[in-house]
Amino acid sequence: MAKFDANSTLKRLQNRYRLVVMNDDTYEEVVTFKLSRLSVYVLLSTIFVLVTGLTVALIVFTPLRMYIPGYGDVNATRELRELKMRTDSLEQVMHQRGQYLENVKSVLQGNVTVKLDTTALDIPKPETIDE
C-alpha cells in the first residue's frame, strides 16, 4: 500500500503549469497563463463562494423570499390564521341561522311534526330486603 507523503502532495499542488491558447489557423499564441493546481483550486473555490453568497443575498434581500414555502411574513401568517378561524365561525353561524329559519318556516306553514322521546329510561327497581 502506498504511503501518504504530505511534502510530495504539497509539491504537486505547487508545481507550475502553462496554459496556452493558440490560434488554430496561424498557431499564434493568443493568451498564456501560468497556473498551479493550488491556484486553480483557490480560484474555483472563490467563484463558488461568491456565486453562493450572491444567490443567498438575492433571495434574502428581495421579494423572491416570498416564493419559498414557510418563509412568509409572520404577521401575514397570524392574520391568515385569524381570518380562517373567523370564517369557520361565520360558516357555523350561517348554518345555524339557516336551520332556525327552516324551522320557523315549517311552523308557520303548519308542517310541525312532534318528535317524541323514544329512548327507554332504565329505572332501577327498588331493592327489597328478603328475610
Protein architecture, described:
By secondary structure, this protein is mainly alpha-helical. The chain has one domain (6-108). The longest helix is centred in the last third of the chain and has 36 residues, at 74-109. The radius of gyration is 42 Å and the shape is elongated. It has a two-stranded antiparallel sheet with strand order 1-2. 53% of the residues lie in helices and 11% in strands. The protein has 3 helices and 2 strands; from the N terminus they run αββαα.
Shape: elongated
Low-confidence stretches: none
The number of distinct structural domains comes to: 1
Query: Which structural category do the helix and sheet elements fall into?
Result: mainly alpha
Distance between the termini: 103 Å
From the alpha-carbon coordinates, what is the Rg to the nearest angstrom?
42 Å
Query: Helix share of residues?
Result: 40-55%
Question: What is the number of strand segments?
Answer: 2
Mean pLDDT: 86
What sequence of helices (H) and strands (E) makes up the elements?
HEEHH
How many strands, which pairing sense, and closed or not: the largest β-sheet? 2 strands, antiparallel
Strand % is 5-15%
